[in-house]
Design brief:
- By secondary structure, the chain is of the alpha/beta class.
- The chain folds into 2 domains: about 5-75, Helix Hairpins, CATH 1.10.287; about 80-155, Transcription elongation factor, GreA/GreB, C-terminal domain (Chitinase A, domain 3).
- It contains 3 helices and 7 strands; from the N terminus they run E-H-H-E-E-E-E-H-E-E.
- The strands form 2 sheets. Strands 5-4-3-7-6 form a 5-stranded mixed sheet. A two-stranded parallel ribbon has the order 1-2.
- A hairpin with a 5-residue loop joins strand 3 (about 90-95) and strand 4 (about 100-110).
């Protein structure tokens, strides 16, 4: 990876919890099922064995991806942000477009995005445009639907 994988402590904890759940609970249970199914004889028509092996590959692939993301993660606590006058990682920003429609967004790591909850990835086009903005700044964003301008109405960070 050529750029850091910024992530909040809560986002890192979620990645870690998923890894632990897959590694300590789901994978061992699946290995036990595969072992049982393999002991039943003909494996070519054994649905438990075939599905189990396929699911085991999926779990192993996901575990590898999670391990890689956690290794590259740089945990940044937004509550400890020193410059709270600018939109930096972890900021919650209220923006308004040209039609005065307001949106509240939080800049989070790319692994913890949830557009429906207003959490956008640090490297998303809108987040890149808002980086470093202060209250009152107007930023132009090139989106797939065309260029838009947003004004920063409010800016806040979580408290410790």
């Amino acid at each position: 990876m050529d750029r850091p994988n910024y992530i909040t402590p809560a986002g890192y904890a979620a990645l870690r919890a998923e890894y632990e759940q897959l590694f300590a609970t789901e994978r061992p249970a699946l290995v036990e099922t595969i072992s049982w199914a393999a002991g039943n004889g003909d494996r070519s028509e054994n649905g438990d064995y075939i599905y189990g092996r396929k699911r085991l590959r999926e779990i192993d692939r996901r575990l590898g991806w999670l391990a890689k993301r956690m290794k590259a993660a740089k945990v940044v606590d937004p509550a400890r942000q020193e410059d709270r006058s600018r939109a930096l990682f972890g900021a919650t920003i209220t923006i308004a477009d040209e039609d005065e429609h307001e949106r509240v967004l939080t800049l989070v790591g790319d692994d913890e995005t949830d557009a429906g909850a207003g959490r956008i990835g640090w490297n998303a086009p809108l987040a890149r445009a808002l980086r470093g903005a202060a209250v009152g700044d107007v930023r132009r964003v090139e989106l797939p639907a065309g260029a838009r301008e947003y004004e920063v109405i409010a800016l806040s960070y979580p408290t410790e």
